[in-house]
Amino acid sequence: MNADGVRERAKSLPREPGVYQFRAEGTTLYVGKAVDLRSRVRSYADPRTARIRRMVDRADEIEIAVTDTETQALLLEANLIKRHQPRYNVRLKDDKSYPMVQLTDHEAPRIEITRDPAESATVFGPFTNKGQVETVVKALRETYGVRGCSDHKYSGRERPCLDYEMGLCTAPCTREIDLESYVQDVTAVERFFEGETGILADPLRREMEAAAEDQNFERAANLRDRLETVEAFHGEGGEAVQSVGDERAVDVLGVAIEGENATVARLRAERGKLVDRDRHTLEAPAAEGAGDEEGGVPAVLAAFVVQYYAERDLPDALLLPERHGDGEVAVWLEAEGVSVRVPGAGREAKLVDLALKNARRNVGGRDECGMLADALEIDAARRIEGFDVSHAQGKSAVGSNVTFVDGSAEKADYRRKKLTDQNDDYDNMQTLLEWRASRAVEGRDDRPDPDLLLIDGGEGQLEAARDALAAVGWDVPAVALAKAEERVVTPRRTFSWPSDAPHLHLLQRVRDEAHRFAVQYHQTVRDEVKTVLDDVPGVGPETRKRLLGRFGSVENVREASVDDLESVEGIGEKTAETIKSRL
């Protein structure tokens, strides 16, 4: 695409915020955000660098997406960079993205929070805070009865499901509501996401006031909290976004760049104490596109912050080695209540220096994930899932499934499963892997496929796991790590790596975490096979499992609020109140 082609394309673009993509033969070369799409895209007619000139020359089309706000453009840009991994962007090698809300293209549209919306759906977002989005979607469903079930569950029903009984759905599947009325309710939901806050806030306020008049103060308090979330959702009531006075959580970032690779080291301090540290590799092209921020450390910092916190809680404060220089990122962080500082002296400056040392220690060399991939002769080992089983003489058998990304535990992606009681480690491992593989193949697991599976055990456990993978047809490399001699067992050979090998240490961390997680779950199942929850009307084995999976113990369930209990799938207000009264 030449300069005239860029100018001609820019003429047709709106002067609104949004995201643009330079594409060539269906492949995304570069993704950028803009406050004014027309002005930003037009600036590429005169690229600042030879690299960007080559990118523009290669492109054969420019796609755009208009957003409501500059912040949405910022988050959508991060999502598209994660999805397409364009070679001309600074990009973090992980798979997190910001949540969106979609209304499906169906005669009775379904509302769903997703990170990968369907092309045919009506999509809103992306949004920063998934918890806030979940609260709003639940409030919308309670108010307008929009369904959340899959199309498979919707079709062929003869009677409404539990969501209808709980007041979360008006059951268009069995025509408890006619489709015309249902579509009108869906339109009301669209109006809310388009900025009409009152369409949800007003009924919530009336319900809150009615609960207070009836002296149902706990219900009124829950509705008040929900109302505050709804009113702040579109940026109104900004005073509700407050930073923590004592800055409970502080992230410290250091950056080191070599060529087109960058390493960002992150230190986490909580209440003044270092509690975690990790390093992340980014591909960092030498320059950004015309009209974008300068390259180097500022560009890496801006890209890292937006992409890293896609599915992680933002800290109360960020300490940086220098300013990131991105105005849209600055506005977003300020709105989220994050204090950004570049300390010049004192303890904070020392923390930044420590982060810089951690970053420089990795730059220019292969990290432990790359070393592991090389040693095993596989394409990558950035995302690893570990598996273990635990039981007591065959009783209370359970399996664990932990996830590590770039060498660090990704606890949001941990899973666990209750197994059939039997004193057979091989069969238990095969069952566990069949469960994981089936969910992946059938699209029922929302996690990306891993690069490598690590089995806690030896040749027998690995063979059982591979039998399960073959039976289901899930093609993912699998190895085992035996405890006694720390031998790495693969289908073709066994490795005895030096005890100080970084890639061996990585496997040991994954194996030990899978073991810890399995033992912890086994103890929970063993100690609470029969609990007082079994005596609560409306709480069956599956609901009990979800409660204990969410809160960890009966004691924690007892201390949870009604609102917290309602957030568990399948539990409505009446059941939550019954649990509170019985416990």
Layout of helices and strands, plus pairs?
Layout lengths: L2 H9 L6 E7 L2 E8 L2 H6 L7 H9 L2 E6 L3 H15 L6 E2 L7 E4 L7 E4 L7 E3 L5 H15 L6 H4 L7 H4 L13 H15 L4 H16 L3 H16 L16 E10 L2 E10 L2 E11 L13 H12 L8 E3 L7 H9 L3 E3 L4 H17 L5 H9 L6 E10 L2 E11 L2 E2 L5 E4 L6 H17 L10 E5 L2 H14 L5 E4 L6 E2 L4 E2 L6 H26 L13 H11 L2 H6 L2 H5 L6 H10 L1
Parallel strand pairs: 8-11, 11-12, 13-17, 17-18
Antiparallel strand pairs: 1-2, 1-3, 4-10, 5-6, 5-7, 8-9, 9-10, 13-14, 14-15, 14-16, 18-19, 19-20
Quick description:
The chain is of the alpha+beta class.
Task: Describe the protein.
The chain has 583 residues and is α+β, with helices and mostly antiparallel strands. The longest helix is centred in the last third of the chain and has 26 residues, at 502-527. The protein starts with a helix and ends with a helix. The model is unreliable at 236-245 and 287-294 (pLDDT under 50).
Structural class label? alpha+beta
Query: Could you give the distance between the termini?
Result: 68 Å
- Quaternary status of these chains? single chain
**For the CA atoms, what is the radius of gyration?**
26 Å
Strand content: 15-25%
